[in-house]
Automatic annotation (TrEMBL), chains A, B:
Cleavable signal peptide: none
Gene Ontology MF terms in the entry: transferase activity
Entry-linked Pfam families: GST_C_7, GST_N_3
Source organism (scientific name): Afifella marina DSM 2698
Residue span(s) of domain GST C-terminal: 105-230
Name of protein: Glutathione S-transferase
Keywords: Transferase
Domain named GST N-terminal: residues: 8-84
Listed InterPro entries: Glutathione-S-Trfase_C-like (IPR010987), Glutathione-S-Trfase_C_sf (IPR036282), Glutathione_S-Trfase_N (IPR004045), GST_UstS-like_C (IPR054416), Thioredoxin-like_sf (IPR036249)
C-alpha cells in the first residue's frame, strides 16, 4: 500500500477526530481510492516532514506529498479525473472554498467551545501539554473556562447550521443531487464534534441530522465505523 | 418592451435599494436581456398580483410571472440556456442556495442594524408607516434604537465578510474565473447597504471592496449608475 494519510489521533490511536482529516478521508473514499491512515499525535506532525509540515492531514500519494485537506481534494480531482468528481466543474472549487471559509467562521467557534477541554482529555500526555499551551494562548482562557456546557452552546450551533439546513430543503446533498467535497467540509467539522462528544448534539428531526446520518453511510460506512469517545 | 422587473423604490423613485431586486437585475444583465424596471413602493407590491405576491422582485417575462430573486435566476437559466450561465452546471444551484442562506444569516443582521432607520427615512409616507410597524414588530425595538452607529457595527460586518474575503484570495470572482449568481447574491446585499448609506463602509484596501468595485463595473456599469442616497 503506497497511499498513506497522516491522520490526527488521541491517546487512543483509533480515536480520529480532526475535521480536516475527515474531509480528506471522505475525499479519498469518494474517489474510490485505497489508503491507509497513519495515526499521528499533534507532536508527531513535525516528524512527518521537518520544517515544512505543521498540520495534518498530509497525504502521501505514491511519493507525492500534499498537505491541507482542501489541497488534497484538488490534488485528487486532478490526479484522478476519471473517478467521481469532488467538485462541480471548475467553478465548484470556488464554491467549496466559500463553504470551507464559512464553516470555519461559523461552525468552528461554537464547536470549539463545546469540546476544547474534551479534546485535551483525549490526547496523550505530551500532546496535552502542547495542546493546552497553544489553545489557551489562542483563546486567552484556561481550557476549563473556554469549554462551556453543550446545552448552553447548542442554540448558537443550531443557528450556525441554518444555511446548511436551508440548502438541504432544496437538495438532498449540499453538492446537489450527489454528495461532493462541499458536503465533506461541514461533515468533517461535525465529525470532530461527534467523535469527541460521543454523538451529535442536534435534534434528530433536524434536516442536518438526517444529512449527517446519510454522510455516515457513504462509502461503505467509512465514518460510521469510526471510534467515538465513550 | 415586454420584460419588466418590479423593483422596490423609495420616496425618490430612482432610489432602488432592495438586495433581492439587485440580484435579479444583475442576473438579467448577466444574461444580456433587456428589461425595464417598474418602481414599486412596499405598499405597491400587493397591487402587482393581489393575494399572491407579497414581495419583490417580481419578473414579468413576456407574461410569465416569477417572484423571488433566486427563482428568477433559475428561470432565466432555464429559459435562456444559450446565454452566459448564471450557475456552474446543475450542482451550482445548490452552491448558490448555500450562498443565499449564508448571506442572509451572516450579512443581513449587521447591515440591518446599520441602516434600518435610514431605509425608513427614504420611503414615502405610506410606506414609512408600514415599514415601521412591520420591522419594529420583527425587531422588538423602535427603529431609532434598532439602528446603531455604523462604526460600532463595522467590526461585525468585517467579520461576517471573512468567508467572501478568503474565497477572493483564491479566485477573482466568487463563482470562479467569471462572475455568476453567487457573486450577485452578496453583491445585492452590499448594494442595499451602499445605496442607503451612500457608500460602502469597508476599508478600500479590503479584497471585498475591490470585488465590489468590479461588480459595479459589470454589465456596462449597471449598478455603478444607480442612485445612491446623499
Amino acid at each position: 500500500m503506497t497511499r498513506r494519510l497522516f491522520d490526527l489521533c488521541g491517546r487512543d490511536r483509533n480515536l480520529r477526530f480532526s475535521p480536516y482529516c475527515w474531509r480528506a478521508k471522505m475525499a479519498l473514499a469518494h474517489k474510490g481510492l485505497e489508503f491507509e491512515t497513519v495515526p499521528t499525535p499533534f507532536l508527531g506532525v513535525a516528524a512527518i516532514e521537518p520544517d515544512v509540515v505543521r498540520t495534518v492531514p498530509v497525504l502521501d500519494d505514491h511519493g507525492i506529498r500534499v498537505r491541507d485537506s482542501f489541497d488534497i481534494a484538488v490534488h485528487l480531482e486532478h490526479a484522478y479525473p476519471d473517478r467521481a468528481p469532488l467538485f462541480a466543474a471548475a467553478d465548484g472549487i470556488a464554491a467549496a472554498r466559500f463553504m470551507e471559509s464559512a464553516t470555519f467562521a461559523t461552525l468552528h467557534p461554537p464547536i470549539m467551545r463545546m469540546i476544547v477541554k474534551d479534546i485535551h482529555d483525549q490526547l496523550d500526555d505530551a500532546d496535552q501539554e502542547y495542546f493546552r499551551e497553544s489553545r489557551e494562548s489562542r483563546l486567552g482562557l484556561p481550557l476549563e473556562e473556554a469549554q462551556q456546557d453543550v446545552g448552553l452552546v447548542s442554540p448558537e450551533l443550531d443557528k450556525a447550521l441554518a444555511p446548511l439546513r436551508r440548502t438541504l430543503e432544496f437538495h438532498p446533498w449540499l453538492a446537489g443531487d450527489e454528495p461532493g467535497f462541499v458536503d465533506y467540509i461541514p461533515f468533517g467539522t461535525l465529525m470532530w464534534l461527534a467523535v469527541i462528544h460521543g454523538g451529535l448534539p442536534i435534534d434528530p428531526d433536524d434536516a442536518v441530522a438526517d444529512w449527517f446520518g446519510r454522510c455516515l453511510d457513504l462509502h461503505n460506512g467509512l465514518a460510521r465505523g469510526a471510534r467515538f469517545a465513550a
